[in-house]
Design goal:
Length: 426
């Protein structure tokens, strides 16, 4: 591990695992890892439920979330390249008042811890559902077993090769979803009609979940660290920024295409016949037009793979985010670093073990991330506008306008959900 231009420039496990990409096209980099992180069981389940319950009505929310992810992840990447700092590190020097800094850091750590615990719950439930479909038993038992496996792999540091393998399986499942979306021949007029913003009755949670499963708060911390390893301080800043933007646009766009394919298959195969999604068998039915009888097994394997790789990534991302915010030097073997990922993993495992409705639990986990998004996005906007830190590369009016819109929409939807829960609004 080596320091690159800042006090502590961590070599994340993701960057170590992605070292071979440096020998390939220079523009392929951290954005692909960000996409791999958010295309997990939560995305598959949330997109499937959105399409099955509301057809193409929420396509606009998906498009909004992809644009939001591109804009916010670009800010994060720009921060890492220009300043050689992560978001957590930058926040520590943003506020003049020590009291305000302490409050902000506490809020960030709380948000990341809670959000990742919720995300981890969805990861383990999704992987458990995949194993339940393949081998029987209870998804809760499988979730606990997978939580233990993730703990052992993280503690030993031998997870990298497994992570590469399961990411490959997730990539294959994603390709199959895209091909299936073409095979089912969706009604393009209805698909385009879904671009008009509207929230059908009962769809607010689904909208927040679509945003939360795409714009993942911990990815905003992770991205700034990843770009420092891909583009070192020896790379001209203008070159690094240009390539990082291309990487972000292409990678997040690909993730959006995959999610749109899932919504499309669910809307065409499930919603069109008036059915709903209650378990993995219902989700796997989307792939039957292409895979036939093999759909169940293929989907189960893919869901398990997506869950396991995300179950490894999410706790580690939380540990790196906390390290940056608290000023710790990232060290995979230190007790406090391990304590952060272990706590997140433990909470996620416990919540997965007691989950009664797996599909609802996964959608709730993504909605929780969506509710936390405004807080993290506000802090990112504050840092991205620091002229003393970013100089000529600070945010311009256009990016600020989109960033503020993301915050207002996410906050508004979150407030509506809270008021609905207390019966204040219908």
């Amino acid at each position: 591990m080596s320091d690159r231009g800042s006090e502590s420039s961590p070599t994340t496990p993701d960057t170590e695992a992605s070292a071979p990409t440096r020998r390939g096209p220079r523009r392929l980099g951290p954005g692909l890892l960000v996409t791999a992180a958010f295309i997990g069981p939560g995305t598959v389940t949330t997109a499937s439920v959105a399409g099955a319950d509301f057809g193409f009505a929420l396509v606009w929310a998906l498009v909004f979330s992809i644009v939001a992810a591109i804009v916010l992840q670009e800010m994060s990447a720009r921060l890492g390249i220009v300043t050689r700092q992560g978001l957590g590190e930058a926040l520590r020097t943003t506020f003049h008042s020590r009291a305000v800094t302490v409050i902000v850091i506490a809020l960030v750590i709380s948000a990341i811890a809670f959000g990742n615990a919720a995300f981890q719950t969805g990861n383990l439930i999704g992987a458990g559902l995949g194993l339940e479909a393949l081998a029987g038993g209870s998804f809760q038992v499988w979730a606990v077993a997978l939580g233990a496996v993730a703990f052992l792999l993280l503690f030993s540091g031998t997870y990298r090769w497994i992570e590469r393998a399961v990411i490959g399986l997730v990539a294959v499942m994603s390709v199959v979803f895209i091909v299936t979306a073409v095979v089912v021949r969706p009604d393009l007029s209805e698909l385009l009609g879904g671009l008009v913003p509207r929230v059908p009755s009962g769809a607010t949670v689904a909208v927040v979940a679509l945003i939360g499963t795409t714009v993942v708060p911990y990815n905003l911390f992770l991205h700034a660290s990843l770009v420092r390893e891909k583009w070192t301080e020896h790379t001209p800043v203008t070159t690094a920024l240009r390539e990082a933007r291309s990487d972000t646009y292409l990678s997040i766009g690909l993730g959006g295409l995959i999610t749109l394919a899932i919504v499309t298959t669910a809307a065409t195969v499930v919603f069109a016949r008036g059915a709903s999604i209650e378990d993995t068998a219902d989700m796997a039915a989307q792939m039957e037009p292409l895979l036939g009888p093999a759909a169940d097994a293929f989907f189960a394997i893919g869901l398990c793979a997506a869950g396991l790789t995300s179950a490894i990534t999410a706790p580690l991302a939380a540990a790196y985010a906390a390290s940056g915010a608290l000023g710790w030097k990232p060290d995979l073997t230190s007790m406090r670093f391990r304590a952060v990922w272990a706590i997140v993993l433990a909470f996620g495992t416990v919540l997965a073990a007691i989950g009664e409705d797996p599909v609802a639990a996964i959608v709730f986990a993504q909605a929780a991330n969506g509710l936390l998004l405004p807080l993290i996005a506000v802090f990112l906007l504050v840092v991205a506008n620091r002229g003393d830190l970013l100089g000529e590369h600070r945010n311009r009016a256009g990016r600020n306008a989109i960033g503020v819109t993301v915050v207002l929409v996410a906050a508004g939807l979150g407030l509506f959900n809270v008021l609905s829960a207390f019966g204040v609004v219908g």
